[in-house]
Amino acid sequence: MHRVASSGSNGGSVRARKEKKLTYVLNDANDTQHCAGVNCLDVLKSSVSSDQSYLFTGSRDGTLKRWSFDEDAPLCSATFESHVDWVNDAALAGDSTLVSCSSDTTVKTWDSLSDGVCTRTLRQHSDYVTCLAVAANNCNVVASGGLGGEVFIWDIEAALSPVTKANDSTEDSSSNGANGLGSSQPVASLRNVGSSNNISVQSSPSHGYAPTVAKGHKESVYALAMNDTGTTLVSGGTEKVLRVWDPRTGSKSMKLRGHTDNVRVLLLDSTGRFCLSGSSDSMIRLWDLGQQRCLHTYAVHTDSVWALACTSSFTHVYSGGRDQSLYLTDLGTRESVLLCTKEHPIQQLALQDDSIWVATTDSSVERWPAEVQSPQKVFQRGGSFLAGNLSFNRARVSLEGLNPPPAYKEPSITIPGSHPIVQHEILNNKRQILTKDAADSVKLWNITKGVVVEDFGKISFEEKKEELFEMVSIPSWFTVDTRLGCLSVHLETPQCFSAEMYSADLKVSGRPEDDKINLARETLKGLMGHWLAKKKHKPKPQASASGDILSVKDSKKNPTASKSEDSSAANDPVYPPFEFPSVSPPSIITEGSQGGPWRKKITEFTGTEDEKDFPLWCLDAVLNNRLPPRENTKLSFFLHPCEGSNVQVVTLGKLSAPRILRVHKVTNYVVEKMVLDSPLDSLAIDGGPQPLFAGNGLLPSGSKPWQKLKPSIEILCNNQVLAPEMSLATVRVYIWKKPEDLILNYRVAIAR
Fold this sequence. Notes:
Blueprint: E1 2-3, E2 22-25, E3 38-44, E4 54-59, E5 63-70, E6 73-81, E7 87-92, E8 97-102, E9 107-111, E10 118-122, E11 129-134, E12 141-146, E13 151-155, E14 189-192, E15 199-202, E16 212-213, E17 221-226, E18 233-237, E19 241-246, E20 251-257, E21 263-268, E22 274-279, E23 284-288, E24 293-298, E25 305-310, E26 316-321, E27 325-330, E28 335-341, E29 346-352, E30 355-360, E31 365-369, H1 376-379, E32 385-386, H2 391-399, E33 413-415, E34 421-426, E35 432-437, E36 441-446, E37 451-458, H3 461-467, E38 479-481, E39 488-491, E40 500-502, E41 516-518, H4 519-527, H5 529-535, E42 542-543, E43 549-550, H6 552-557, E44 587-590, E45 598-601, H7 616-624, E46 634-641, E47 655-658, H8 663-677, E48 684-685, E49 688-689, E50 713-717, E51 720-721, H9 728-736, E52 742-748
Parallel strand pairs: 46-52
Antiparallel strand pairs: 1-47, 2-39, 2-44, 3-4, 4-5, 5-6, 7-8, 8-9, 9-10, 11-12, 12-13, 13-16, 14-15, 17-18, 18-19, 19-20, 21-22, 22-23, 23-24, 25-26, 26-27, 27-28, 28-32, 29-30, 30-31, 31-33, 34-35, 35-36, 36-37, 38-39, 40-41, 42-43, 44-45, 46-47, 48-49, 50-51, 50-52
């Protein structure tokens, strides 16, 4: 503790630049399952070269997964992880390329038969990318659409990623960087889009390539469809119209009106002549693009239609949506039948052999019988009805209770998912989070270890939160959200470095018990431990006086740049309270000084990643033990004798101490001042002499005189005796409860 001047001047402040944040995503014990709604499906059917079929799924948890089937039992054979936000759509372009799009504003291509290799990242969009379309017989042609009315047509063989991240590889043979970046790659400019917090990247095209732009939409695009040869593209969205394009030139050929609400899904037949559309107005429409008119309207659903799948002959359509029902409709006779009902809205459908895969806002995926080869067999089971041509016809039938029972009761295969987290509470110790998932299961997480401490099962979330309450005050050093269905912990400098704890409280052995440990730095060490271990044999990066990381070449030019650094910082051990698991490890999401955001599991670092792919402040903290200036790490208070007592005044003016200082340290301060600065026999409390010593006063020889005298002192706040292990911050928040400087009182302990 030290005195604080009663007044002072603040120097001129300089506004700090906005630094990139680092996020780590915690995975539950089984990360082979999706933990959020499944937005997209596609099936890679067996071929001459391979008799294995695969199902690909993309989820709101930001990952894609490939599923194989051994005797019909689903097995997750690969996870594709690079997107940093929801995966909104995915499509296969040929037998070996998977294309995906995301709310992170990117389109990515993957080697679909690999262990999850991202081959390209395309960054032309400025907002969420919501939908894709692929030409079946010309798999190089892929269209992407999104918010803001953007539609791009890509030749994915010619396209090279304008910006490539640490975990993306490219086929550019001229690249010479560790992460595949060539010197000709442009630097991306970043800006916020609309009201969202997502960062969009605008880059000049690399190597002269630019996608074809289909200009015309003034509002968001939700659906795309392309014919097999890639000569016709149809788009729809919040404008409630269908626009038809020539994807080879980006020119618009027609605009079709009919829907009264957002167009959510589109299908084209192989020739590009006929088109099916589903809308938030609950209607399905069949269009003849040659005649530029709507042929039929089908009122089957009672709410928004989000998913369509059609037989190869384009005679029967399977449909699902917000009403949680899957229907089969004969486009010629208008006869419809309810195949099954779900517990969640249906997001997308995919046909495989005689079955249909159904994805919902739940994290699981199911395969249902569908008689795809002979749809008439379903109608022969009975229970069919004629689809109306106006939406109120179908709604009226539903209200009258005339809905027939579904044709199928149970799916043939279920791929289970983990239940997404729907509620969370950061506990006062700022190291644990209580969560509740969609199945009402309550768990306690330790975020500095990335593990579930305890699974309480289905209990009251509010009651457990009250039970776990601790009267402690630690600064909020992180934020958290559950947008991906799991815990995403965000660290931003300098706020994340505001929390410290004593090593004794963390049970860290080998360090003095009152040694202060910064929670963010130790957490970063745990997250980057695998990267550091793989990188040890490489030369250590140096830092310039301005804080910029220097290359090895630059450091030779400036050998004094790192003299003040702690050269052993990178070799500090990871303490047990900050060790992350190697089974179901967390993933890091961040952004460096080049490229865009990237995501990777901490155990998949190879040590070859460029340091520029990490935020500079993270490297400074982990490699150099250099933390930014922090605010509010100390607390000011006054220390006075209790009112009415004759105990001497041990100090005048305001004191300052670390927020985490324990009350027993204040007691020691008072004792030391009283014993050293005043004759003890002259002290009295409440008009009479009181014993100031506890014990017999006998200490080993060599002790200082005041150490042989042990006054029994109590520290109070608001007339409440404080527990010795309370921190000053806790006293201020829970006992003092005032905005003014804290006032503590001391007295000789009253004998009881």
